Predict the structure of Helix-turn-helix transcriptional regulator.
Amino acid sequence: MNIVGSNSFPEYRLEQWNSLRIQLLWAYQKQGNLPQVIDRMDYHFQSAALVIKGWAKVGVGTHEEQLAEPGQWLIFRQGRRRQQFSEDCELLSIVYRFQLPTGEALYNEGLPLIFEAAQVPRLEREARKVLRLMARHVDAGFLRSQQVLDMRDYMLTQNALRSFLLELTGILHARGVHPHVMGKGSTQVAQALELINTAEIHELGKSVTNASIAQQVSLSLTHLERLMVAETGRTLFQYIDLRKLRTAQDALLAEHDSMKAIAYSLGFSSPAHFNSWFKKRTQMTPLQFRRQGSLG
């Protein structure tokens, strides 16, 4: 990565830009149905929320909590966070992924961040474009990976997200928030991550294995494992397991499929097995995650 000056945008090779995961999950403006008790979930996406009414409080620990009030933007970090909202809180919220191939957020250090909306009026304009296009072309709710969309609708909504993110990243850079460093990495690891990241839910439950990935990138399993750990800090099995977890979380947030259907799609022998696997990794059951995640 090459950064020229504190306010400039990062420069990556084209293949690295192509590897980024840029995805609109949902957009809404709503009041109520937000957690008024402290919520300590591990979020695998990011949110940018404009407080319209009431207040929102967020942080990583109690000593780091920040309070956003009407007329302020609150940019949430990815990962575990504490958050709480007033009873009358109303938010304009854009929920998205802007991630490295490994699943880490491109911008995360220095967040959460609060700033005045009046100082950056274009950000709200871009956010409302996303909101209007979602309502017009996709309808409210979570964008499911299996959802069928017209090409024009898909491109309009995703292009609106990119315009919003371009505006947001300029604001982040101006406030000293810089992107995660993306190393050069090996072609084989990039290929392996792409294969795992683009796998369908039923493939993660059956055909995506350590051996199959190694075979497809033309490396021995031992060599690929060594490269994976060196570049991502995770073994191949750990990364497949993480992708499986993220896919399960997406399916639970979408609220269209039953937990039984999700369990079997991911290759679990029973809903009980899925329940224990999920709870071991998130400290909550799939049902608890669905109930809490739908509030975010």
